[in-house]
Design goal:
Two copies of one chain form a homodimer.
Chain A (H helix, E strand, L loop, with lengths): L24 E13 L7 E10 L2 E6 L7 E8 L4 E4 L1 E6 L16 H13 L2 H17 L2 E8 L2 H11 L2 E8 L10 H15 L5 E7 L7 H14 L3 E5 L3 H11 L4 H7 L7 E5 L5 H9 L3 E4 L1 H6 L7 H6 L3 E4 L13 H15 L7 H8 L1 H6 L17 E4 L12 H8 L5 E6 L2 E5 L2 E2 L4 H20 L7
Parallel strand pairs in A: 1-4, 1-5, 6-7, 7-8, 8-9, 10-11, 11-12, 12-13
Antiparallel strand pairs in A: 1-2, 2-3, 5-14, 14-15, 15-16, 16-17
Protein name (chains A, B): Amidohydrolase
Keywords (chains A, B): Hydrolase, Signal
GO molecular function (chains A, B): hydrolase activity, acting on carbon-nitrogen (but not peptide) bonds
Amino acid sequence: MFKKTLLAVSLAATSLISTSAYAIENVDLLIKNATVLTMDQDKTVFDNGLVAVKGNKIYAVTDGKDINEYKAIKTIDADGDIVMPGLINSHTHASMTVFRSMADDVPDRLHRYIFPLEKKLVSRDMVRIGAQLGNVEMLKGGVTTYADMYYFEDEVAKTVDQIGMRAILGETIIQFPVASAKTPEDGIKYTLNFIEQYKDHPRITPAFAPHGPYTNSTETLQTIAKLSLKHDVPVMMHLAESDREREVIAERSGGLSPIKYMESIGALNSNFLAAHVIDANDEDIAILKKHDVGVAHNMSANIKSAKGVAPALKMFNDGLRIGLGTDGPMSGNTLSTIDEFNQVAKVHKLVNKDRAAMPPINVIEMATIGAARALHMEDKIGSLEVGKLADIIVIDTKAPNMIPVYNPYSALVYSAYATNVKHSVVDGKLLMEDRNILTVNEKAVRDEALKFADIVRKTVIESGEIVQ
Amino acid sequence: MFKKTLLAVSLAATSLISTSAYAIENVDLLIKNATVLTMDQDKTVFDNGLVAVKGNKIYAVTDGKDINEYKAIKTIDADGDIVMPGLINSHTHASMTVFRSMADDVPDRLHRYIFPLEKKLVSRDMVRIGAQLGNVEMLKGGVTTYADMYYFEDEVAKTVDQIGMRAILGETIIQFPVASAKTPEDGIKYTLNFIEQYKDHPRITPAFAPHGPYTNSTETLQTIAKLSLKHDVPVMMHLAESDREREVIAERSGGLSPIKYMESIGALNSNFLAAHVIDANDEDIAILKKHDVGVAHNMSANIKSAKGVAPALKMFNDGLRIGLGTDGPMSGNTLSTIDEFNQVAKVHKLVNKDRAAMPPINVIEMATIGAARALHMEDKIGSLEVGKLADIIVIDTKAPNMIPVYNPYSALVYSAYATNVKHSVVDGKLLMEDRNILTVNEKAVRDEALKFADIVRKTVIESGEIVQ
């Protein structure tokens, strides 16, 4: 079943020295004896392969026969485990970890609970503490890159910088006063400052994140679209997510769908990432494709809120840029993309009444190179190919739930837990080894989060404001 | 939100000495400083409670204020972690772990792949090796009792006896020749021997397991029903699961539904456990209730096979005996009931278009006391109550995915991984401590399974018989 192709090492590398059969290459990291899922164009799999890393880039991905040609500073023997591109979580609100497990199943939750809760509790501290916990959770779950929308994203940026992950961080802009901005104009200014501060960071991409079309004015959305093109930064937004959104936008636009409305005001382009896209017909999907928009598919959160199942199968088959996201931890409720895998594979089978629909290989595509495409970063991340940034994870295949592996995609999608991730490499640097995070103190992160949870408990639960 | 009630220690205990405020009670195991989810009638929760065990029974469950009244041979400080009844997996085929991740998404899989695969590979060795791995996976995932249907269940019984878990083990009876029996009559004889052998085992309940109504004759089903009443053992069967089943039974019975047919032949009674029950209307559900039948709800497997969503919400609300099951590892594909939690909570919300449907507390009920009811064992297991058998698990609430816990049911259902289970007690005996299984050698179990997987690979995959 699995093609064995030797990648030409020199192929994608302009600045790299190509290897020969006789020279010894000095590399920084070598992962050997691996079941390598490259997620390249041909979905090449090496059963006993290797991945070599030099600096922050992938230097070689091979069938392992050339193992003696590399001399590495650090070698990891995968012992048959799965080695694959780091997972990309294309939509989240990491800082909301500190609110997780609160009032999960109440109707109209966003407007009745979450917005008031945030008004009371969002602060620089909350954002930092929540993001730290979210980062730890994601890194331990195999996420190496995430796309975040929240407030005080410069605080999130500091935590991402510290732990060593990769992120696209979008400052939320919304029509009512929030902790980081009194008005949408203030929010735009805040974002421009943030962009200025982080535009040259090697792992962090600053972005605009208007909350949604119905929670921002047409003028705000148009201003953001223009500024995003001027500064060449992404725009991330919740789109086609809810009935309320459809109603508000239909009233505003004379009956347009949210996606048609966004097109009509000139706010869709190839810098755009739309989260959710549940409420989209074939015409809407064609519009997203036409404007090269990326889509974040958040199955777990969408079905938990009973909003429905996004037409992700069609979007995937139509060749849209689509990746998996977890949504925030008040929605999903976990942040590791692995937790989405089996739900994505199974629920599309259920709603399409077809057990062959959405096979595991497509789910893994949406978690890696598909999500990279959604973020318009497929030239840099999302697959194990020579010259790409070295974001790599190793999955333990000896945990009881993972035995045996007749098909690695099936094993990952139907059996793997986030806790089966063993090692994580981001930008060429080993950030987690044998499930120990090497860059931040996990216990300190946890203790700070638990302390903040006590404040939350006193402020909104014991006061009776949030009824569980 | 959480009631704090001191359970009267002497209440359910006839043979137990009741405690007084001043005496010191010697107990075998004490779990203290716990968030105790009792799953009793009132769903009592103790925020800082304790559970005391004497012999194989629960001796006390309290709010912890009486902590100084117990002297224990072994004390576990839960440090705020969740302590709850051991999970009950009400439907599985544990031995099939050795086939996991094979040909997952092919149409008509049972008849085209699984039956031929089993014909070739089922043996006493296969059953033992697969069950050993399944046991380890389940115990590590918090399952303390499971209901199994397969061949050579006496081999499964030996593994259950060894690891120390609790199980209801049903020998499969089917109309074509299988490894353990040439005919259904042979299968019945095999089961009677098995019953004789295990009828007095403290943790193992032998049972009949006719495969399904459409894969057995009316006569076989009637014989089994009579024998099960005579020997007072359970009957477990796949029921109302597939279109093929409906067609075959309709033809056989002049248009009856599978459930109506089973009633018409006198094969439903309070010894019966029906697995799946997807294809059931209100009338069918009423029949199951009338005959006091238990139901195993296997969400994950049912949606993966695109068979549909069982009307579990209605069955639960109508007061049927209903619990969660995982189905076998070629279906689900994991065996830990925790993996079902979020799918059960979310998919019922989705199909009922109601985010308040199937709240976490009901999911936890179906995983514990509900599943005990489905197995007609609610007087013995399923809740932490004085006098019940001591099957107890401790869930780590300090893993990053579990922080914070504002609502323990929500945290369990929407956030917990099987790997968050820390300790497991079955029949009063500590079987897993800090995720180390104390009764079997996990590595040896794994190695034997991997070795058998190589045989599977050579026999059916490399020969091209199974196309992935």
